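RECORD TYPE: inverse folding
INPUT: structure tokens
STRUCTURE:
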């Protein structure tokens, strides 16, 4: 009798677990569908050829790539895209190098004022960078790095304080045993050799994470880039250029499909990078959050 009760009780728990798993999967699938639907809609709209205006249906009646062709022929989109790509590449290289060097130094070395320096950078990082944009614009203007020459100005602006974002990478370096450094130093390796030949190969996830975050920040930036470009089309990045496109050159309602085509092209590099390097991105975030 007790066996039957126990068996039925076990079956009851198993049934409850199955029902719970089914409900969880239904909720997750529903959330994914809601999240993906707008992106699918933008993609479909970018290929709609029967009209460039907003319509009340999702599936186009006539497919084509005319919106993409018109985007490059009627606007300065190629220049905006190139500017953003140049800024993203240079910023990712410079910022990654700076962040990793600062993070390794703060993780491995002990010197007077180290704790104060770390706390000061954390506090300063709490203030939004936009509050200093007027001063920064005047400095860049004096250096002739605004307007048409906004690209080098943006690169300088994005990388100037990049070392302050050390905390995630430092947390990851803290998880790597310091005995590796000590053994290499005993063998005569310099600090730079230890970092670049021993530690960084073991820290691939945080390197990838730093590269991705450094590339994504300027790619989607609008406020700072708009201020530095100062309504000069030749110096705009892609976010500012698209806003300028629908705000002055053409209206959003009348040229909605062109706007969707621009959105698809902007999303392609980030989507490819993220899906290709997703594994390292997740490992970098979780590994860097272990210790601080």
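DESIGNED SEQUENCE:
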């Amino acid at each position: 009798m007790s066996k039957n009760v126990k068996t039925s009780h076990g079956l009851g728990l198993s049934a409850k677990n199955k029902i719970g798993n089914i409900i969880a999967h239904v909720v997750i699938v529903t959330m994914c569908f809601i999240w993906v639907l707008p992106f699918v809609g933008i993609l479909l709209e970018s290929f709609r050829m029967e009209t460039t205006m907003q319509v009340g249906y999702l599936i186009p009646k006539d497919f084509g790539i005319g919106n993409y062709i018109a985007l490059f022929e009627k606007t300065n989109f190629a220049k905006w895209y190139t500017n953003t790509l140049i800024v993203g590449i240079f910023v990712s290289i410079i910022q990654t190098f700076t962040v990793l060097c600062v993070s390794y130094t703060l993780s491995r070395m002990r010197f007077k004022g180290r704790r104060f320096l770390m706390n000061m950078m954390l506090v300063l990082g709490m203030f939004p960078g936009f509050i200093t944009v007027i001063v920064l614009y005047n400095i860049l203007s004096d250096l002739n790095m605004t307007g048409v020459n906004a690209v080098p100005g943006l690169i300088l602006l994005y990388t100037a304080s990049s070392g302050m974002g050390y905390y995630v990478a430092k947390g990851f370096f803290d998880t790597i045993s310091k005995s590796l450094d000590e053994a290499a130093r005993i063998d005569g390796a310099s600090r730079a050799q230890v970092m670049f030949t021993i530690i960084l190969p073991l820290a691939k996830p945080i390197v990838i994470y730093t590269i991705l975050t450094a590339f994504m920040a300027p790619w989607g930036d609008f406020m700072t880039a708009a201020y530095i470009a100062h309504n000069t089309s030749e110096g705009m990045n892609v976010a500012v250029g698209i806003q300028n496109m629908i705000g002055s050159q053409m209206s959003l309602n009348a040229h909605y499909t062109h706007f969707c085509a621009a959105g698809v092209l902007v999303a392609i590099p980030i989507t490819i990078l993220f899906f290709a390097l997703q594994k390292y991105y997740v490992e970098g975030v979780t590994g860097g959050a272990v210790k601080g």
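NOTES: The chain has 14 helices and no strands.
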